[in-house]
Amino acid sequence: MQRMNWVDNLRGMSILAVIFLHCTFAVNGNVGHFYVASEAINDILMPVRLGLMFFVSGLFVEAGLKRGLAAFAKNKVKSILYPFVIWVGVYAGTKIVLSHHDQDVLSVLLPHLTGGGDITWFLHSLFVFFIMIIVARRMPFWLILSLCLAGSWLLPAVPADSVFASFDNSHFNKSSYLFIFFWLGDAVVRHKLDMPLLVKKTWVLYGSAAAFILLASLMLFVPALGQHAEEHFSWTRMTPLAPLALASVPLFAFLAMRTHSRVIGYIGTHSIVFYLSHFMVIKLCARYFQEPSSSLWIDDGKYLFSFACALLLPWGICQLRNHGWLNFLFTLKKPAKRSLATS
């Protein structure tokens, strides 16, 4: 599949939305005067933010499989499984070193290796999805949708006292929900649907916009769904919203096609760097910015500082990669493969 600007833009938009969310974690929600906007944006994007990332990844299944199963598997090991292992080591190691009390290495590693890592879970799920899709792409959509929604709704959470417990013990529910988006991305290419032409159809674009408006309204005005319910967050509550979230994808594709931001395109092109490395800034800022300040203006400064650094660190790493440095952190492939959704 040839690189298309709208694909990079859509990926960049989704990564930027993830960074935007994580910056609120860096300051423990103390975002100063940005509170209302931050809360609303993160609420609205919650059902689709991660789904768009997996939708883009699914667009590259067909091209990969055309090279044969052996080449397909080798490619995914080099570009997904390898950086997963590397960054599990980075984040688990950092957690152990910076911990204020002794932690058992295995108790830190196991949640990461089983997909419960606070940032590496994406690569874990993505690698599993690329394996699952070989069989799933032969199945009808109604069956995939039914199975995934059932998994999202019914799978039990990892017990909190288990050695596999992590920050998100419902990550298997989350993966079940997100696999539908990945399957949809593959289906678009497999059925030779031309997204730029499809979203120009009035009924598609208006229907998708209506679905997203309804989705956004539910997230904003139903108390049990939004960020205010984050303390009791479970991916099971997103399950009924999946049809609306899926129907919203054409709208975001349309927006990506109308986007001419070099920043968004750059983030999308270098998505694996921005996704994996920005969280180092989030964790560092979280150590010092957790307490609210006496002034909202100071909170503003902390929030903006976190956001700026979460973009600047990955950008700096990208510059080093352009000179042949640090490539080993992200891929075994040469030349460097610079996106989460590798072909």
From TrEMBL:
Keyword annotations from UniProtKB, A to Z: Acyltransferase, Cell membrane, Membrane, Transferase, Transmembrane, Transmembrane helix
The answer to whether UniProt assigns keyword Phosphoprotein to this entry is: no
Please tell me where this protein is predominantly located. membrane
- For the Acyltransferase domain, which residue ranges apply? 5-316
Query: What topology in the membrane does the UniProt record assign?
Result: Multi-pass membrane protein
GO cellular component term of the entry, any: plasma membrane
Q: Which domain of life is it from?
A: Bacteria
Which residue ranges traverse the bilayer? 50-69, 81-99, 119-136, 141-160, 172-191, 203-226, 238-256, 263-282
Q: Which GO BP terms apply?
A: enterobacterial common antigen biosynthetic process
Compartments annotated for it: namely: Cell membrane
Q: Which GO terms describe its molecular function?
A: O-acetyltransferase activity
Q: Which family does it belong to?
A: Belongs to the acyltransferase 3 family.
Name used for this protein in its record: Acyltransferase
Please name the source species: Duffyella gerundensis
